[in-house]
Q: What sequence folds into this?
């Protein structure tokens, strides 16, 4: 899945539909490098850290289009480098992937790894030499800003503690203020727990919703070896929030690949012949299972042990009611496919 995520990291949506006109204007100006317009819009009160439908910011648009002056202006007016889009990527992630890297996979290598033929727009080639120089300057600028922010946070030993204290107290306005002040939503405490883990462990649904809106890393493991799902298991509503966030990220990746011709029924020999549908069922990802079945996933297929997707669903860790719905979904899919 790492290859898939790096592939998706290269895809940068540049449309700005269904967002307020003033915000749409700053995205267009940042992308086009029109510094005068960006300045005018900021003077009018447009938030430099506003986001479009995909969670991208004006700084992301300006950086990826090589607009150094706009980047400098946005940074000097509060533009944040640590903001993540809906896929969980920051502007630094996108820039580093855009600049040529000796370890970066070629298009042919990506196609071989995925077993598909990439369509137009699904692979962004490394920047041309003249583009690289500008992008590298922007990357250095943004990395310098990140280091400065980290330095300020380190100089204030109470900054990170304030975030965890606000989460534990359920003070959502304070949580928001601390995050906006530059404290990372992926900070960890002395136990290796993130703010989201803490919120989940104490059953604070509101704090979990707020933290998830800031697209935290969901794969972090604490010093006890537990992830956020384990901490959330005591509160079904929080568990659903976390699992939905995880599934949203996976579903977006799979939709992209299915649209490009991925063979979703190909068994994975490293996982005992499991197909994508079996794995989704084992993980209890109901919406992903529904999407796969609707797009041709074979619900009758069996792995090397003779188990099908419904069997994996029965063994999933879902609550009984949700598990039953998932099993029924898969059995219905099996029956429909047998009749075809």
A:
């Amino acid at each position: 899945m790492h290859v898939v995520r790096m592939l998706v990291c290269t895809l940068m949506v540049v449309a700005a539909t269904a967002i307020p006109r003033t915000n749409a204007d700053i995205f267009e100006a940042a992308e086009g490098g029109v510094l005068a317009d960006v300045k005018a819009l900021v003077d009018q009160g447009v938030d430099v850290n506003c986001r479009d439908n995909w969670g991208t910011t004006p700084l992301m648009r300006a950086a990826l289009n090589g607009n150094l002056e706009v980047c400098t202006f946005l940074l000097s007016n509060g533009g944040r480098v640590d903001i993540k889009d809906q896929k969980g990527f920051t502007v630094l992630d996108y820039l580093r992937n855009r600049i040529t890297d000796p370890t970066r996979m070629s298009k042919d290598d990506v196609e071989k790894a995925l077993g598909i033929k990439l369509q137009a727009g699904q692979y962004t080639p490394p920047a041309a030499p003249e583009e690289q120089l500008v992008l590298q300057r922007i990357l250095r600028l943004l990395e310098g800003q990140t280091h400065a922010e980290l330095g300020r946070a380190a100089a204030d030993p109470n900054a990170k503690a304030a975030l965890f204290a606000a989460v534990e107290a359920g003070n959502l306005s304070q949580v928001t203020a601390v995050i906006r002040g530059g404290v990372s939503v992926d900070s960890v405490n002395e136990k290796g727990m993130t703010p989201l883990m803490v919120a989940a462990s104490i059953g604070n649904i509101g704090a979990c919703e707020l933290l998830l809106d800031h697209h935290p890393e969901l794969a972090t493991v604490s010093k006890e070896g537990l992830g956020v799902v384990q901490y959330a298991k005591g509160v079904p509503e929080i568990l659903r929030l976390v699992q939905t966030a995880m599934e949203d990220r996976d579903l977006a990746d799979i939709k992209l690949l299915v649209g490009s011709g991925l063979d979703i029924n190909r068994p994975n020999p490293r996982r005992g012949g499991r197909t994508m549908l079996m794995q989704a069922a084992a993980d209890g990802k109901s919406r992903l299972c529904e999407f796969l079945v609707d797009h041709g996933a074979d619900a009758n297929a069996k792995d090397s042990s003779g188990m099908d997707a419904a069997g994996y669903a029965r063994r999933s860790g879902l609550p009984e009611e949700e598990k039953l719905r998932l099993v029924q979904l898969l059995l219905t899919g099996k029956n429909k496919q047998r009749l075809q």
User: Anything to note?
Assistant: The mean pLDDT is 78. The chain has three domains: 2-151, 156-240, 263-339. The chain has 18 helices and no strands.
